[in-house]
Amino acid sequence: MGGHWLFYFYALKRSNVAIGMISLFTFPVIIALLEPLFSKVKLDPIHIVLGLMVLLGIYILAPDFDLESSQLQGILFGVLSAICYALRILMLKGHIATYNGTMLMFYQVVVLTVVLAPVLYFMDTSNITTQYPYVLLLAIVTTVIGHTMFVNSLKYFKASTASIIGSTQPIFGIIIAFFF
């Protein structure tokens, strides 16, 4: 989860919200391709076709293949975030039958808070005081509620199915961005 967070926000910083979000949402295809390695699910050949389509879409996003391009850096960090997110979901899928999804999320957030808290002593946090309400809203809505609901859905769906359903998030993100 920590890798997903760090790489996702760095993708947003290097490019923009649209590129970061679209790059992150390659995770359903990554899950579909990796799920056979984590469970007894067979690889569906259509997932390979979908994976190639996603790669084509990511290629179209990049204005040019120059590692100095902030757009390409954003895409690469977004896809790296998607890989971390996919691995996290596939690992959680194996534990959701035994443990409560809410508690799994709670433990992840607590551990990450302890691990990442020292960074606050080295960063310039002078601007964050005016952003606390927005950071709290982001933390509660997208992390606490969103991720917990997603983890709990793994009890009822394959990881690839749950992630494909979850991939409607960019559509809702665009609609919410339009109003706000």
TrEMBL record:
Residues 5-61, 73-180 form the EamA domain. Keywords: Membrane, Transmembrane, Transmembrane helix. The keyword Metal-binding does not apply. GO terms for cellular component: membrane. InterPro entries: EamA_dom, EmrE-like. The chain crosses the membrane at residues 15-34, 46-62, 74-92, 104-122, 134-154, 161-179. This is EamA domain-containing protein. It comes from Winogradskyella psychrotolerans RS-3.
